[in-house]
Amino acid sequence: MSVHPKGNDFITSMPALLPPEMGRFSIKIVSRIKGRKPALKSEIFLYDSNSGELIAILTAIWSSKS
Fold first, then answer.
1. Is the distance from CB of 30 to CB of 43 less than 8 angstroms?
2. 66 has pLDDT over 60
């Protein structure tokens, strides 16, 4: 699912279901907002498939710096 609050800005959700033996599912939220530094950001929310409990929130920012 993707929303576009204004102009070329966007917020997109990307769900993922891991294999049953791992007992996890996640959703990645990717957003690009003009003027924000960095403009493109992502967070990953990791859940327990059995209980639905949130396990972790991870920052997933891409960087071209080496």
1. no
2. no
pLDDT of 1-33, one tens digit each?
899 989 899 999 999 999 999 999 999 999 999
pTM of the model: 0.80
For tokens 């070329």, what's the residue? 8
Largest CA distance in the chain: 42
Q: Long-range pairs for 18-24 at CB < 8 Å and ≥24 separation? A: 18/49, 20/49, 22/49, 23/48, 23/49, 23/50, 24/48, 24/49, 24/55
